[in-house]
Every structure is written in structure tokens, then in C-alpha cells.
Amino acid sequence: MNKVFVEKKYGFNTEEALELFFRFNNTIVISENDYVSMGSDNGHYDSRVVNLVSEIELQEFYGVHEANRYLRSEVLSIQNIITFITGIPFLEYSGYESCSTVIPRSIELKPTKFIFDDNDYTLALEKLIQKIKDDTQLSISLLDRWRKASYLSIESNDANLYHDEAILGYFHIIEMISEMFRDELKAKLTDGIFNQINSYYEENLHYNATQINDKLKKNRNIINELFIDSELSISQKCKFVLTKYELLDDVTSSFIDELIGTRNSIAHGRKSYNKNALWPVSPFFSLSHNSYECLDALSILSARLIDCYFETDIWKEKWEECHSFLLPSRDILNNFLKHPKGFTGVSVDSLFQGNAYNFTWDSFFYYYVQEPRKFNLERICNAIKDMYLSIEYNVENSEQLFNISVVLCDSCDRDVSNFARKIVVFCVDKKLFPWGNKKDIYGYLEYHGLEIPWYKDYLLK
């Protein structure tokens, strides 16, 4: 056997502070203070230098370059670890200098360190490495799937090119983690339903223990089919996992339901032709109509679930921030539109600053766009009229009002429509809108088959 040393330098696409020193199996990872200019289809950018130094024994008949093949799984695992902690895809394509030799490479050993953007992730790194040792197959599969989906997501920024594939990749992570708890969920459902049936027989039919056992044994297959196996859907498994990790609430539950619908559209196929298009235009018809709206949140949720699996909190803060921007539950919003006075925690201030239901001015706009019949304009107008008309709009808050105001310009309520038009004119004059330009919202609503006559006339003037 010959001992071979492999050193490869990579350009890691970040300008943030990065300090690395750790060992993973046969490889030592070291960050350098230097920058290297890396090129891509999107231009050149300065990258931090990350050096991987590996040591491996090969059969004598192999050349030194065969070491790269034997080390590939180890190198990819390291790239997965760095990607997950930083949120920046670390790719093999970013390698720019490599050397394989039988000459020993001497490295000064230092304490394990992982510092990124002035945050110390050393403890999290150690937990990741230990968990990988305990369950290499699942741990690396989760991290690699997340790295690949993150890469596809970033590559899609300009044209939504790989949105569908990225969504499936992130969702596979949720499915893999959910499958870990399948047996536990099944046992919980089994205990619950059989205990209830046992109580039913005992309290209502006065069967003794032997009679109850006979009944349960006779009907076990039917009970399993009706109440257990049929309920082990991906939705229930996902929500069970979220409950285990204390991440489930009405908002997250609603988000999961939306994700499953999007995932099914992609995985099972549907008619993808759409006469209209949105910027940035895609080179293909998309199988999902809202991939651009859920992708970022799905990325962070899947990362947070991996976080929980590894017992780290790398993505905890980002998920909490992301959660505050998720859409409210469709059912709860519908109840609000029916009985707005019953939601005492909803006020003008809370619609700007946040509330327990995740109601915002944009959430009303979004649901109107997605389901204009159920969440029609006049229902929304009637529910929010008093709060809306009491707003003192200014340069600090007007951008949040732009979307809902554009559609309210055509409300049948004259007070509301006049007020909405004033806000829209103010926003356009001050360039306070969450779009690239003032015309984009018209194209967005046109894409969804909605007309806004007043704003159209306003643009034509």
C-alpha cells in the first residue's frame, strides 16, 4: 500500500469572515486569508480560499490521481457540512488548484474551529460530525439533498429554471425525516383508536375483557385499514414530525398543506401550458404555479428540520423570522372575514408589525389573487374598512399598503376606493412599491386573470 497526500483549493463564494479548521475522517479543512477571483456565467466574484488536505492509502498499482476517486465521498460530505452551516452551496466546480503526491504534507494541528460571519458554529460542527459518525447514511443524504436543492434554487434566480426540481429536493428532506417517525405515529394512532373502541364496548355495550379482546381481534384488520393506514399520509407524517420538534401551529400547518399541493403538482404532473408569463420569464412552462412564492420558506423549513435532527440551532433564528412572513391559515382568515370583530388581536398596528395570526395587508392581497371568488374584494373590504380608513400613511408604511390598495381602488365602497387611490398615487410618486417598477403589479394580476380598471387607466395617463 502507498500513502498518498491530496491537497485541493476551492474558492468559496462569500466575502464574509470565515475561519475553518477541522478534521473529517482523513481530511483536514483549513480556511486561508486569501481571496481568489472565480468566474461563472454570471461574472466574476471574490471568494474565500478553503483548502482540503487529505491522506489515504492506495494499492501500489494505482497512480496518485486515483486518490481523488476514493476521497470523493469524503470531500462531498465536507462540502455538505460547510454548505449547511453557512447556507451557501459549496461545489466541486469551485476547485481551482489540486496536487496529489506521495510526499508527506505537514500541517500544524489547531483546535477545531468554524466561524462564519462573526458567528461561532464550532459546537454545531462537532454535533454534525458526531451525528454523521452515528448514522452516516441518513445524515449525509439529508445534507447532500439540501446542498443540491440550494444550488438549484440559486441557479434559478434569473429564470425560475430549476424551481420545480429544487422544491422536490427540499420536500424529499421533509419526507425522509418524517419517515423516521412513521412507526411512532402508527403506534400512537393504534393505541388511540383501540383505547377508544375498548371504552366504547365497555361503557356502552358492557362487554367484559374477554369479549372486548375477541371483538378487537376479529375487527383488527378493518380498524387498521379505516383509522390507521389510511391516515399515514405525507401530510400527517410531516405534521407529526413538526409536533415532535415543537414547530407546528396553524400557520405552519397551513404552509405544509400548500407545499403538499405544490409538490403533488410537480411530482404527479399536470397541464403546464399558460398563455401568460411573469418576469423573470422561464425557458419552460412551470408545473407549479406558485413555486417562486414558497421556495425560500421551504428551504429554511427543511434546513430547520435537519437542524432538529442534528440537535443544533443553526437555522432556528432564520426559521422564526421566516415564520413571521408565512401566510395565515386559509380557514382562520376566512373566519376573520366573517367575524372581524371577534379577532381582538388584529389592529392597524398589528397588520403592520405582526400578530398571532400572521395577518398582514399583503396576506389579504395574496388570498384575493389566489381565490378571488372565495376571498372576494368586497368581503375583504368590509372586514378591514375601519382599520384601512384610519391609516396615517407615510413613506415608512406605504410600501406595505401598495398591493392591497391597488385592488381596493376598484372597490364598490366609494370611501375605500377613494382612499386607496390616494395611497397608490402617493406610493408611485415616491417610488414606494415592492416591485421592480409600477407596471409589474399589473402584469402579475393579469397573469392571474384579474382586472384592475382604475390602475390600468392610471398607467395609461
From TrEMBL:
Domain MAE-28990/MAE-18760-like HEPN spans what residues? 177-274
Pfam families in the record: HEPN_MAE_28990
Question: Protein name, please?
Answer: MAE-28990/MAE-18760-like HEPN domain-containing protein
State the organism named in the record.
Tindallia californiensis
